[in-house]
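Thread: Newbie trying to understand structure tokens

Hi all, I'm a second-year student working on a class project, and my supervisor (Dr. K.) asked me to get a predicted structure for one chain before our next meeting. I've only ever worked with sequences, so writing a 3D structure as a token string is new to me. If someone could post the tokens and maybe explain what I'm looking at, I'd be very grateful. Here's the chain:
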Amino acid sequence: MATATNVVDGPDYIAFRVPEGRGLLTIVAVVQPGAGATFPWAIWYSALAPTGEFKKAPLNYTRFGIGGRIAKTLLEAIKAGGSLPAELVDQLSIVKL
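---
Reply by user tm_fold:
Sure, no problem. This is what the structure looks like when written as tokens:
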């Protein structure tokens, strides 16, 4: 996937899945500007947190970068309580936190 990047910090948007109960929860996160650390802060959006949660980005977060246009579409769907395209979600990495 193409990524929108901030020259200093890596990708502006990341997306991945995490184990949740018996399934997987899709996360789309906005990496905070100037974070610049190995574990920068990001706002995580998901079906369980449609308004976002401020959390640390996962280890090797740069591997999960996605393009800004795709990220914004996914974020709009999450905030509206909509479903995400299965063909895209299936391609996202699974991260064990």
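A couple of things are worth pointing out once you decode it. The two ends are 23 Å apart (CA to CA). The longest strand covers residues 23-31. Feel free to ask follow-ups in this thread.
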